[in-house]
Amino acid sequence: MDALLAIWSEIPRYGQPALFNLYFAIASLPIGFIFALGLALGRNSNNRVLRGLCSGYIYAFRGSPLFIQFFMFYSIMLALNPIWWRPMELSWLMMNPLFIGPLALVMNTAAYTAEILYGALRTVPRGELEAARAFGMSRTQVFRTVTWPNTIRIAWPAYTNEVVFLFHATALVYFTLPVINAQRDIMNTAQLMFERDYNAFLHFSVAAIWFLAISLLIFFIFGRIYERLMRHLPPDQVPARPRLRFRPKYIR
Amino acid sequence: MGEDLAFWWGYLTNGKHLQWYASFRFTIMAALFGGVLALTFGLLGAMALRSRFAVLRGIGTVYVSMVRGIPDVLFFLFFPLAFEQGVEWFVSMSVCGPDSTPNAGWPPCREANWLLSTPEYLTLACVSLGIIYGAFTANVINGAMRAVPRGQLEAARAFGMSDMQVLTRIHIRQMWIYALPGLSNVWMLLIKATSLLSLLQIADIVWWAGQLGSPNFLPQAGLVHGDWRWAYFIALFVFYILVTLLSERVFRRLTAWARRGMPVEA
């Protein structure tokens, strides 16, 4: 009972740190998605060079740990600091964890999302594409009215998983980048509190509760969007939306 | 040109670099033992999920779904700490008395303090990798068990096999072909998680890369080299991509092996 009370009373202390995790996720998701769409279309294109470049990028960033990618981007930024950023007076931006963090996350999530979107692009029903072309639609029209709506509907459940995993990946940011002043995320706060009184069970449980709560919120919001995307189908034909309950089809 | 080559050869084989190369053993051991443990926990978790007893099913469900809501790095840090504190608590029950050195915070007295070194941390890291990725594996295996055609199991039962025989001779053996794509995914995740070893104070490849690349200043020689960390981290980036490439090949072989005699086109 005391333990539960201790957990309950510590929960509000993580509110502000959680904002940093949310910032990293929200700052990188939209840009990452647009970048991913470009990568997926590039990988699906008929141009050999473009296809090779996009596939290579996706493979490299999916095949290496995000932890290493953070270190890599940070050290490259450090090396470029004396020759580029300082003369251009951009150090305040380029060396800021609030910039490098989302930068690395964008590069990473773009690769994972591109893989999802590419898989979805390949499963767009051929008949619909042919029908659209038979109507005399231009390539842009075909993309806007057939390819895109199909792609996003097929990809949405997998993309929901990716968003949750990206949110979890924000826990790694401050293990690799310097912590400035009170800019601490959830994991960092948990570690700081742990070093004070060595109560691993209390502090890590509270951190876990925060991650769990925000993950559930993401599943809820993305589930509602999925329902909206699928509103043309009768309710019994809509494939199950992703939940906390595990499904065998997942990525990452 | 020859001088340059000699310099780089000398630089890349100096004592500290050799220690760096030797530290790859931690990563490889963590991946292999972590993988074996993950498979073990995964099989146990899948058995729990499919068990007849509701309590076991509940435990299995909680175990499998926890990795969906909570980041792996949190578990990776928490399990070793929790285990260490559990052992210290256990020891303190018998060791700590009125005449032992009191200690503020944890553990209750100095005598109960357990100082962990690299082998212990590596073992604990393997176990936490096993637990985390065991949850993913349990889910994959559970799905694969369900994918085995019912007719196969019914035929086995019709031949008079006991439940245990059906499970070990037919069900688990036929499940691999359905599980392998998922297991390959989990293995890739596990390899990538081995880069986190330095968080448990193990001097692994990532830690050494940071040490070797930092600006190197010697009082006698001046600045030996500037900040070369970017080169070391790009090397690690490439290393992990190569490991992924190699794993994919191995899994392709495994799939070909598991598919022999099976009526599936996976």
Percent of sequence in beta strands of chain B: under 5%
DSSP E strands of chain A, number = 0
Pair with the most extensive interface? A-B, 45 and 49 residues
Biggest β-sheet strands, sense, barrel of chain B: 2 strands, antiparallel
CATH superfamily caption of the domain at 18-184 in chain A: MetI-like
Describe the strand arrangement of the main beta sheet of chain B, using strand numbers. Answer: 1-2
Approximate shape of chain B:
flat
Number of strands of chain B: 2
How many helix segments of chain B?
10
Mean of all residue-level pLDDT scores of chain B? 89
Cα(first) to Cα(last) distance of chain A is 38 Å
- Poorly predicted regions of chain B are none
What is the strand content of chain A?
Answer: under 5%
Uncertain residue ranges of chain A: 246-252
Which series of helices and strands of chain A comes N to C?
HHHHHHHHHHH
The CATH first-level class of the domain at 22-92 and 102-204 in chain B comes to Mainly Alpha
Concise synopsis of the structure shown:
The complex is a heterodimer of chains A (252) and B (266). Chain A has 252 residues and is mostly helical.
Protein model, in words:
The complex is a heterodimer of chains A (252) and B (266). With 252 residues, chain A is an all-alpha fold. Chain A has a domain at 18-184: MetI-like (MetI-like fold). In chain A, 75% of the residues lie in helices and 0% in strands. Chain A contains eleven helices and no strands. In chain A, helix 2 (15-43) packs across helix 6 (97-122), helix 7 (126-134) runs antiparallel to helix 8 and helix 10 packs antiparallel against helix 11. The two termini of chain A are 38 Å apart. Chain B has 266 residues and is mostly helical. Chain B has a two-stranded antiparallel sheet with strand order 1-2. In chain B, helix 3 (24-49) packs across helix 4 (54-69) and helix 3 (24-49) crosses helix 6 (118-147). Chain B is flat and about 85 Å long.
